[in-house]
């Protein structure tokens, strides 16, 4: 599966990048790199920045929310109708689980696409095509701050990074693209400077109660019902774990945390069963 090139900072970009043509300014998302490819079999193959996973179940736990999201929303028929060979196309985007910025997790999609590779053309698609492609296959793309801005009118030194589409504060940065395939990034000065997550040092039972709250369980159960999905133990438990790990994977997986994840999962399961029993009894 095609790998994504590193994006240089604006200081390392060639001078001509800001002297000719037009630029697209995209929101830089504080997420985790994800790429995927539809196989001829209909299965979706996923990868992070460094590794490709033949089995979606092998994708690390923090990514499981985005694996489910892509598999559920990808319009396979539309993709097959758009290209001669689906395996010629690789999609790139951000898996939106917690890194530094605490996004509005109920609103931001699990996946936001930012680029598309076409093996047939031997290149990445231009930015105006990328947005249309993701729309056409049922997935959202990253927020576009500006389209077709004259390169000569863009000054990285004076540019104020806009408000994020998914958070109350400014975006993590801006990715700048042109139609020749060149890219650069302008990172917000405060991006990545927040304190790292604190390790967890409480019993699994207490930790599960902290995260698998009744509000969270009810919210996810209601989503399943809205999607006309049965609220079974297996489905609800899986979704609750995904939701927790999306927000708290860095704390739960902290090298100094004392929590045993198997015990934590078991306690979340017990809370899920108790919630469903109470719900069926109308309490």
Structure description:
- It comes from Natronobacterium gregoryi (strain ATCC 43098 / DSM 3393 / CCM 3738 / CIP 104747 / IAM 13177 / JCM 8860 / NBRC 102187 / NCIMB 2189 / SP2).
- Pfam families: RNA_ligase.
- Residues 23-185 form the RNA ligase domain.
- With 283 residues, the chain is an alpha+beta fold.
- It folds into two domains: 10-187, D-amino Acid Aminotransferase, Chain A, domain 1 (2-Layer Sandwich), CATH 3.30.470.30; 204-280.
- 31% of the residues lie in helices and 19% in strands.
- It has seven helices and ten strands.
- It has helices spanning 64-73, 76-82, 127-136, 204-211, 214-226, 233-252, 261-280, and strands spanning 22-28, 32-38, 44-47, 52-53, 89-95, 111-118, 123-124, 144-150, 173-177, 183-187.
- The strands form two sheets. Strands 4-3-2-5-6-7 form a six-stranded antiparallel β-sheet. A four-stranded antiparallel β-sheet has the order 8-1-9-10, with no helix packed on it.
- Helix 4 (204-211) crosses helix 7 and helix 6 (233-252) runs antiparallel to helix 7.
- The radius of gyration is 21 Å and the shape is globular.
Question: Briefly, what is this?
Answer:
The chain has 283 residues and is of the alpha+beta class.
Keywords:
single chain, 283 residues, alpha+beta, 2 domains, 6-stranded antiparallel β-sheet, 4-stranded antiparallel β-sheet, RNA_ligase_dom_REL/Rnl2, RNA ligase domain-containing protein
Q: What proportion of the residues form beta strands (DSSP E)?
A: 15-25%
Specify the CATH homologous superfamily of the largest domain: DNA ligase/mRNA capping enzyme
Biggest β-sheet: strands ordered side by side in the sheet: 4-3-2-5-6-7
Number of strands: 10
What is the straight-line distance between the termini?
Answer: 50 Å
What fold name stands as the CATH topology of the largest domain? D-amino Acid Aminotransferase, Chain A, domain 1
Roughly what is the average pLDDT, rounded to an integer? 92
CATH class of the largest domain: Alpha Beta
Percent helix range: 25-40%
Q: Summarize the main sheet.
A: 6 strands, antiparallel
Along the chain, the helix and strand elements come as: EEEEHHEEEHEEEHHHH
Ranges where pLDDT stays below 50 over 5 or more residues in a row are none
- Count of separate DSSP helical elements: 7
Radius of gyration: 21 Å
Task: Name the CATH architecture of the largest domain.
Answer: 2-Layer Sandwich
């Amino acid at each position: 599966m095609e790998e994504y090139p590193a994006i240089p900072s604006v200081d390392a970009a060639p001078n001509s990048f800001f002297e000719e043509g037009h630029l697209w300014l995209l929101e830089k998302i504080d997420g985790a790199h994800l790429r995927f490819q539809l196989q001829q079999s209909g299965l979706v193959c996923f990868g992070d920045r460094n590794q490709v996973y033949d089995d979606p179940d092998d994708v690390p736990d923090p990514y499981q929310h985005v694996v489910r999201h892509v598999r559920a929303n990808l319009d396979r028929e539309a993709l097959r109708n758009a290209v001669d060979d689906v395996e010629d196309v690789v999609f790139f985007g951000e898996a939106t689980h917690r890194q530094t910025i605490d996004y509005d997790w109920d609103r931001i999609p699990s996946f936001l696409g930012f680029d598309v590779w076409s093996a047939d053309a031997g290149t990445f698609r231009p930015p105006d095509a990328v947005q249309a492609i993701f729309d056409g296959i049922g997935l959202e793309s990253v927020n576009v701050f500006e389209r077709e801005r004259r390169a000569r009118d863009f000054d990285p030194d004076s540019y104020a990074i806009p408000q994020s589409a998914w958070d109350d504060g400014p975006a993590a940065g801006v990715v700048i693209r042109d139609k020749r395939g060149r890219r650069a990034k302008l990172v917000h000065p405060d991006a990545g400077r927040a304190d790292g997550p604190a390790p967890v040092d409480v019993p699994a039972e207490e930790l599960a109660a902290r995260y698998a709250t009744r509000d969270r369980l009810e919210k996810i159960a209601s989503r399943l019902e809205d999607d006309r999905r049965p609220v079974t133990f297996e489905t609800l438990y899986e979704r609750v774990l995904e939701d927790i790990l999306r927000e708290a994977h860095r704390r739960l997986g902290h090298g100094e945390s004392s929590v045993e994840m198997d015990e934590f999962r078991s306690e979340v399961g017990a809370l899920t069963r108790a919630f469903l029993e109470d719900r069926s009894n109308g309490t």
